[in-house]
Amino acid sequence: MALIGIVFFFAVPRFEGSFLLDDATKDSRWLMATLNNLREEAVRTHRLQLLHVDLETGRIWTTSDAMSPEQVARAAAGARRPPAGGSVAGVEFPLRGRITAGRADIRFHPGGRSDQALIHLVNGDRVHSFLVEPFLSQVRIFDRLTGFDQLR
């Protein structure tokens, strides 16, 4: 028992900064799940799904073209920040450039296609960029601020 206690004494502090406990990683997993769910929901329901990002408040919400105006208003009222306190610093589109103020919308179409966009998520001093590709189901993540000019 004493040996196990000694091992835990030295091992537990190492797990404190672990990938599984990190706030930036929690926000990243949440955003990845949201993006993947939107794409799957668009294909499953054959309806346009939208991710809305309010860059002033850092809040995110989703809607679909099947929603009534009242449902859209309720979805916007229920917008939330990433669960670990991060925020979206900007959304970048290949033709429109980087949006850092106002609202940005990313569309997920019923055929599985989406708008191409980079979402820049900040948590503390860490920045992750998420690349949403039009025809690929997987979202690519970068551990730094990445723009379309750096992807070419």
Can you characterise this structure?
- There is one protein chain.
- The protein has a five-stranded antiparallel beta sheet, covered by helices on one side. Strands 2-1-5 form a three-stranded antiparallel beta sheet.
- Strand 6 (117-123) and strand 7 (126-132) form a beta hairpin.
- The protein has a single domain, classed as 3-Layer(bab) Sandwich (minor pseudopilin epsh fold).
- It has 152 residues and is of the alpha+beta class.
- It is built from four helices and eight strands, in the order ααββαββββββα.
- Residues 15-20 have low confidence and may be disordered.
- The chain has helices spanning 2-15, 23-45, 69-77, 148-151, and strands at residues 49-54, 59-64, 87-93, 97-99, 103-108, 117-123, 126-132, 140-142.
CATH architecture: 3-Layer(bab) Sandwich
Structural class: alpha+beta
* Overall CATH class: Alpha Beta
The average pLDDT value, as a whole number, equals 86
Fold-level CATH name: minor pseudopilin epsh fold
Q: Outline the biggest β-sheet.
A: 5 strands, antiparallel
Poorly predicted residue ranges: 15-20
Helix content: 25-40%
Number of H- or I-type helical stretches: 4
| Gap between N and C termini | 57 Å
Bin the strand percentage: 25-35%
Give the full name of the CATH homologous superfamily: minor pseudopilin epsh domain
The backbone outline, from C-alpha atoms, is globular
- Strand line-up in the sheet with most strands: 4-3-6-7-8
Count of individual beta strands: 8
- Provide the gyration radius in Å: 18 Å
Count of discrete domains: 1
